[in-house]
């Protein structure tokens, strides 16, 4: 069907004559439509891949991959579990924690926070907070020193800097001669961290584990053990492997149970966006139909002459399928190159646009991530270009079939 002569004629029809400028314009718009659709699809999916990767890194960088807790919400003698954890090749770090809600009063403002008690020497094994400290060090959280490390946005809201004092107010009540009062304690700000995720930068504060135990009246117990695994995506399997080694007084949960709905929503949004943008590529690809129909109408006499010289309907159909495929391929190549270049440079381009127009597309107080990340996945590029090519090929079938049905005698009767 696709002989050299057919290929030559199909490629020849891609070049315009003077009297067919309008057809050439329609063809050009078809190429540009496919190119823009492919570019948009590659860029948007790369940005969504970037968002997903950033969310994974930031959320799992601040929360545990898995955690061990007691059935009653308290974990006694946590150090006894270290022997079990050391025997697991998949666990690369663990750290005890005490967590509870509290209010911070800076004498200027009051804010509710999630207060987490940590051991400075253990915490870097399970979280990245130490890597994101703007001021101070985790080692300054000494037992009995009542120091506190705040998220950057929280510190800005309260108007405090390292060295300032804060009053921590917990829900636990204390009976005094004046009545029932909440527990109060003065803390000194020793550090500020900024992980780039508003949920943590605005709502999380860290104190020493022993100070948290006194504040929340935990005694020698902790809220649980946070675990860091060598592969976060195998967390459910690893958690099931560790589970039988623990007795019935403990329970183990992993991040997929705590954040599964959130990440499933991200995945669903990505799939829906892919389908919507693929429909745009489909609309652009089917513009090829109108371009080919106009070419067929313009070339009816040429087709009739070719038929009289022995060309079969299948050969004629092949000519116009080649023509449509060339149009689609031109758009796919342009769109693929444009999409890859844009996806690789979107993190540079967007800040320049924001600076030029004085806008901010992703305010930190609204979105989890305040910058536009991008992660190009070549598998997505191959899938997008492959589907675009398939749609372009399908768009050529009807006009090519229509051309193959032309009757030479009827077309040449009045020539």
Describe the structure.
This protein is α+β, with helices and mostly antiparallel strands and 415 residues long. It folds into two domains: 4-57 and 263-411, no CATH class; 72-247, no CATH class. The protein contains 13 helices and ten strands. Strands 2-3-8-5-7-6 form a six-stranded mixed beta barrel. Helix 2 (21-62) packs antiparallel against helix 9, helix 9 runs parallel beside helix 12 (378-404) and helix 11 (313-357) crosses helix 12. The chain is elongated, with a radius of gyration of 33 Å. The two termini are 29 Å apart. The mean pLDDT is 82.
Strand-residue fraction? Answer: 15-25%
Distance between the termini: 29 Å
**Widest β-sheet, arrangement of strands:** 2-3-8-5-7-6
Please give the domain count.
2
> Structural class per helix/strand content?
alpha+beta
* Average of pLDDT: 82
Q: Percent of residues in helical segments?
A: 40-55%
Gyration radius over CA: 33 Å
Contiguous low-pLDDT stretches (5 residues minimum) are none
Order of helices and strands: HHEHEEEEHEEHEHEHEHHHHHH
Q: Count of helices?
A: 13
Q: What does the largest sheet look like?
A: 6 strands, mixed, barrel
Strand count: 10
Kindly list the characteristics that best describe this protein.
415 residues; alpha+beta; six-stranded mixed β-barrel; 13 helices; elongated
Spell out the blueprint of helices and strands.
Layout: H1 4-12, H2 21-62, E1 66-70, H3 82-86, E2 91-105, E3 110-118, E4 133-135, E5 147-151, H4 152-158, E6 165-176, E7 179-193, H5 198-203, E8 204-208, H6 209-215, E9 224-229, H7 235-242, E10 250-254, H8 255-285, H9 287-298, H10 300-308, H11 313-357, H12 378-404, H13 408-411
Parallel strand pairs: 3-8, 5-7
Antiparallel strand pairs: 1-9, 1-10, 2-3, 2-6, 2-9, 4-7, 5-8, 6-7
Helix pairs in contact: 1-11, 2-8, 2-9, 2-11, 2-12, 8-12, 9-11, 9-12, 11-12
